[in-house]
Amino acid sequence: MAVKIDKKIKGYSVLTPEDRARESAAAVQAEAVNRAKVEAEFPVADIIHMHERIERPEVLVGSTYKIKSPMVEHAMYVTLNDIVLNAGTEHELRRPFEIFVNSKSMEHFQWIVALTRIMSAVFRKGGDVTFLVDEMKAVFDPRGGYFKAGGVYMPSLVAELGAIVEEHMKSIGLIHDPEMSAHQRSMLAEKRAAYESRANAKKNSEISPPASNPSPASNPSPAKAGEGARRADEGSSSAVSSNGTSEDISITGDGTSFPPSATLCHKCSTKALVIMDGCATCLNCGYSKCG
């Protein structure tokens, strides 16, 4: 490329490699001085961010969760290990680092190994890994899902793995579940109490014998009377279905009682949706179709 010189040349100098090295060293030193001044004015926390070059420590802390699903013959044990970042400081943080799934059943061995290896790689990559929960919980089995303990519907085995990952992330503070306000909790408790009291009243009215015109048929035997008293005492665990017949309330694994006739709530995926005052109401999360 030709360069046109319009002015008279009055002098020249040769730039040697040593001159270039001195200029670069001076620039690096000036940058370091400026960085030191900025850090002195605005202190920055020494936070270690996750990236793929982090080596696995010798010891990791974690938790193991059990899955007992009708989709597999044997139980599955999911182990999630965490790495502790900035240990011993106010910025200490636990992040998932690896996941393992162990089971006697070898039916799903291939895809489980592939899935856990990919998830472990995503955990080590860093960044926002909470998206895995939504992606896994949205997987549906074409053969149909199942209800786990507590009446919560799981559309697939992968979805239950996602629910376990979500539970673990909540326990380490990576996901914060918005809690219901005190007003919402009180309204939900009132609805549950109203539904149970109405069910108990209906049950007691069916059990109570008529007050007049006694007949041999209306006088139950001692055994039947004892059975009626026992059912009356268990009135708190009974309800009235939509067709007017009485039914026992099932106690779920979480210690919560929902009528067997309750339908699935699309908001919390729990069989706790009942008809109250002509409106579909969830006894678990408080959702109401009428607002």
Overall description:
This protein is an alpha+beta fold. Among the domains are: 61-171; 184-203 and 234-291, no CATH class. It is 35% helix and 19% strand. It has 6 helices and 12 strands. The protein has helices at 17-41, 109-125, 131-137, 157-171, 182-207, 222-233; strands at residues 61-67, 76-85, 93-103, 146-147, 153-154, 238-240, 246-248, 250-251, 257-258, 263-264, 271-276, 279-282. The protein has a 3-stranded antiparallel β-sheet. A 3-stranded antiparallel β-sheet has the order 10-11-12, with no helix packed on it. It has a two-stranded antiparallel sheet with strand order 4-5. α3 runs antiparallel to α4. The longest helix is centred in the last third of the chain and has 26 residues, at 182-207. 18% of the residues are buried.
End-to-end span in angstroms? 76 Å
- What ranges have pLDDT less than 50 throughout 5 or more consecutive residues? 44-48, 228-255
What profile does the largest beta sheet have?
Answer: 3 strands, antiparallel
Total strand segments: 12
Number of DSSP helical runs: 6
Query: Strand arrangement, largest sheet?
Result: 1-2-3
Q: What percent strand?
A: 15-25%
Overall pLDDT: 76
Can you tell me the overall shape? elongated
Order of helices and strands: HEEEHHEEHHHEEEEEEE
Query: Approximately how much helix is present in the residues?
Result: 25-40%
Q: C-alpha Rg, in Å? A: 33 Å
Classify the secondary structure makeup into a structural class. alpha+beta
